[in-house]
Every structure is written in C-alpha cells, then in structure tokens.
Write a structure and sequence with these properties.
With 282 residues, the protein is of the alpha+beta class. The chain has nine helices and eleven strands. Helix content is 26%, strand content 21%. It is globular and about 60 Å long.
C-alpha cells in the first residue's frame, strides 16, 4: 500500500504520521514468553517468505501508538498497562489492537474500539454499559502518545476528550507489574477506565513512567485547559464501590442522565452469565 495515501490532510493525518514515526522499541516492556516449543527453522523460513510476498495492509494501518492502563470492570484489582496500536477510521471511530508492550516480542492481548461522544449518544441504553469514559485518562495524564512532539500529543488528547472505548482483554499476560498467564485462558474480560485518583495502582504507573521516561504529573498539568472541554460522562462511577477512598479528578464527572444505573450493570462475557472473568481473577 502507498503509505502516503493513508495520511489525509489536516490534523488527524499529521498526528497519525507523527505517531507512526514514534513507534520504536524505546522503553520496551519485557513481555512474558508464551508457553510452547521453540520456533522451528522451517517456520522462520515460511515467515520470511510471507513477509516478502504477502500484503499486510490492515496491520500497517495501525499507525497511532497510545499507552494507558486498564482495570477489568468486574475485577478492578486486575490492572495492566495497555499499548494501543490504532487506526483512526473516521472522526467518530478508531480501532486498536492491544499489546502488553511495544517491542517485537510483545503479546497481542486484546482489542479496543474508540468512538466519539456523538456516536456514544446514538447507542442503545443497554449497549452503553460496555463503553468506558476517557476524560479521566486524558486529564490525569495517564494516557500518553509516546515519542511525538508535545503539541501533537496535546492536539490528539484534545481530539479524544469526551470519547468512549469498548475494550476486551483476551489474555492476562501481566498482573500489575508481575508476569501473568503463559497462555490465553478463559473468556474475554471487559476492561474499564480509571476515573478517580487512587484507583490505579501507583506502582504500575511509576513503572511505566520510569521505563518510558514519562512524567505523568507534567502531562496532567499541561492538559488543564482541556477541562473546559470535558463534559460529564457515563460510567465514571462504575468502579466507585471498589475504591471507596479514591478522590475525584478535576473536570471528571458522572453524567446525570446515566442510563438506568448502567455503571452497576454487568454485561456477560462469552460463556459467563455474570460476565466475571473467572480465569483472570487471582
């Protein structure tokens, strides 16, 4: 595919181009090695041939790199760093493959879809229970786009304010800062966002910031003006009962019109009537 055709004129195309340039191996996470026999020489030969002859356009289009943190909605003590490699399909919709790191050996462990506030408001009430709010991730400085200029990252976060994500983790490759399961086990688990200070494990944040040379506090301060754009969102209170000592983040509020208490809804995962990710609970 002609790479230049993927970048449209305007701020979105510029941000995607800058993000693509930033997708390097700096600050790589040491991903757990999956269980299994070592790769055979014949497999490596087949891979080399496929790489030379096959078109991988859908993968190449994942040219925006974001790093955030996800708790599982029904078991929020299970928390992980999430590397999103995304394609901005249009102004209302993006799709991301999730990995446990940014190195060549990173494990694919989930998927996230991102929609605008306008798209969220068109969803049926029962569907909204699957979509987590993004304002706290942005305003707290948790969500970052590593390697791109500060002005470009700020423009990207401004674009994503008031957006929502639907995230399924299929493999618990890391449990906080510790290794997780050697293989994908059990049903996919619905992930959520952190919406108050004191919900995210500080050790998980500190480890990301140390390894990636990121100052979350500086990013939080630089995004203060985005508070004026932030509107109340559904799902902000979804984890409140699990973290009673957590404190509000300026600019982050639960929407008054929240869908019939959807924050307490427990949409079912495949094969699990109550949606509890039993294979992930430790």
């Amino acid at each position: 595919m002609d790479r230049s055709r993927r970048f449209q004129a305007g701020p979105t195309g510029l941000l995607l181009a800058l993000s693509l340039a930033a997708c390097t191996g700096d600050g790589e996470v040491p991903s757990p090695e999956p269980a299994g026999a070592p790769k055979a020489p014949g497999t490596a030969v087949l891979e080399t041939g496929a790489r030379a002859l096959q078109d991988t356009a859908p993968v190449e289009a994942l040219d925006m790199h974001l790093i955030g943190f996800h708790p599982m909605k029904d078991a929020p003590h299970i928390q992980m760093e999430a590397h999103h490699f995304c394609r901005q399909v249009n102004e209302d919709f993006a799709q991301c493959a999730l990995f446990d790191g940014n190195g060549a050996d990173a494990n694919l462990n989930g998927v996230e879809y991102i929609i605008s506030e306008a798209a969220f408001e068109r969803l049926p009430q029962e569907e909204r229970a699957y979509w987590h709010p993004h304002n706290a991730e942005i305003l707290s400085g948790q969500l970052v786009a590593p390697g791109i200029p500060e002005a470009a990252e700020h423009a990207l976060m401004r674009q994503k304010i008031n957006s929502y994500g639907k995230t399924w983790h299929t493999w618990n490759t890391r449990h906080g800062v510790e290794p997780g399961d050697a293989l994908p086990l059990g049903p996919a688990a619905l992930a959520w966002s952190f919406n108050r200070d004191g919900e995210l494990d500080p050790a998980l944040l500190a480890e990301r910031d140390r390894r990636m040379d990121i100052d979350t506090g500086e990013r939080r301060e630089s995004r203060r003006e985005l508070r004026d754009l932030a509107r109340p969102q559904s799902g902000v209170d979804a984890l409140r009962e699990h973290f009673p000592k957590a404190t509000p983040i300026d600019g982050v509020q639960e929407a008054q019109q929240a869908v019939g208490g959807h924050a307490d809804a427990r949409p079912a995962a495949a094969g699990q009537p109550n949606g509890r990710p039993d294979a992930l609970i430790r």
